[in-house]
Task: structure prediction
Amino acid sequence: MAKVILKPIGTPLLDPGSKAGVTESAIEEKRAKIKQGWGKKYQERVRAKSKLTVWERLELLGSPVYPIGTFVDTGSEDKQAPAAGVITAFIQIENRWCMVIANDNTVASGSWWPKTPEKIIRAQEIALKLKIPVIYLVDCSGLYLPEQSKSFPGQKGAGHIFKMNSLLSNAGVPQIAGVFGDCIAGGGYMPIISDKVYMTESAYMVIAGAALIQGAKSQNLSSLDIGGASIHVHISNCADFRVPDDKTCLDHIRQEIAQCNSSSIDYYRNDTQSSKPRFSPDELSSIMPAKPTESYDIRDIISRLVDDSLFWEILEHSGHEIITGIAKISGLYVGIAANVQGLLPHPEKPDQKRPGGILYKEGVAKLATFVRACDSDGIPIIWLQDIAGFDVGLEAEKQGLLAYGSSLIYANSTMQTPFMTVLLRRASGAGYYAMAGLPYDPVIQLSTCLTRLAVMEGKTLALGAFKTRPGEKESMQVLADRIESDMDPFKSAGQMDTDEVIKLSEIRSYLECLVECCYQSQNQRRIKNPRIWSLHDLEAVMPAQAGIQNMSPPARDASAGWHDKSKLDSTPITGQAIRAPLEGMLYLRPSPTEPLFVEEGQVIQPGQTVALIEVMKCFHPIKYEGSKPEKVVKIHATDNQPIQTGAAILEFH
Result:
């Protein structure tokens, strides 16, 4: 009988000093500001009508609440719409995860702004993929007319919301609407296809409001007269139930959710329960370097996200720039695919290393194989991205890396199992696509405050754009600065290029919610018993192949260089040398204004960094790996100059 054997992963945190936490304060500050809507004045205006604000409604509806699309900010030149005037969030109600879509009634009476429809549609798409109930808390006075041209006509304009209503209904996904106030034009259409529609006494649904009716037909009527609960519950049958106030409406919505199919989460846990990681997720901000040029051990990240910090690594003998495997989150099986940083063994050249954070042939093939197996077995996949792109150059082209990449793209594009993407830090070039970026329709894409989403870094792009015009340094710097500002994660979230920016310590809790959503509904997708997983077949076949190829997993300290007596270049060496394990740009000092790492005549200690090699804008520390102190007798390399693999950096006795 095939068994899933999970093994410990990760190491304890030795240095508790945070490297990234200082930048995460911006998340809380922005959230607090957005939560205020248009401010206390408008909140009091809502309460004066005996209604609750949108956040008061959400808090009464259920807990916990995991918002998405928080930082979508749109509006006109003189008016902004925080969160696009609508809150979308996962909320657990009666032990069932739901997608809640709620108009912010403190922002222009819940009007739809240019990105409001797109944000609502995105939430509906997520719910459709996961087959979780959708709840609409409607308090919407229609399109914000001064900006109508940006929200009315397009493919993802307001009308597509109603198509999504229909697709959700067609798929059997429960939809429940509560109408709390203004519900004009598009706001009036949205609740109608829901399975259950509740209206409060202060609510109305109309194709056109009283002011427009008076102008068009000279009829002096109130909106409640035209389309209040008395009309739509008792006459038109456009609503089902009439309730006195907001709180009562929310109580009834919860009762409706309680009557939906019960959650299958415990069934798929197979008598196990959710367990916390052995290492705290709060330590993630101390592990992740804020600078994208610094490396870290991805295993230490995974160990702070998965239950009990246990992991089954799959295909570990190949594609060392990628780690793939199985773990549990909230007691439920998930696949994990992540980029590995640092210097890694070259599969065909034992005397060389190559940088991680880049996709090579072996890693791409490994990902495609893993994805197809998880898809066959019905295992949700979590992608942890920190990637600089694909390998480039003659070797990559001769190996047919483009074709291997196309195979992976095909696998990602056709998989049926749910998958989620987390952009830990870099998300660059075609690597962003290959690692299941947003264009490949993950259920959701999360970013952190460190995320840098772009084709390439600003400096690299500017150098390429201006290499034929060396005299235009000022213009080059302007371009570099603009590209850097475009890579701001909040700007990406504002443009809906990512679904949410969260703190590193929140990744685990968001993943718990998402993984539970993947398993909540039964009979919606294939979910195999672990005994018959295709992954077991892979493990049975691949070790034999790995033995033939004589490939082994990388050492834990994958960022270190090595020393050697052999003369790999023409430099005359009388003692031992520390040599470049890969080609790139060599730096003998931490920065241009700081002293050299080591100087001739200095004694170096085991583990001491002696140089940096930059490859694709990632700096790899080269360390002395000897077991005892040694004296540097000569530095052979030149600072800030290219260096070839095997060239001597320094000589010691």
Observations:
- The two ends are 57 Å apart (CA to CA).
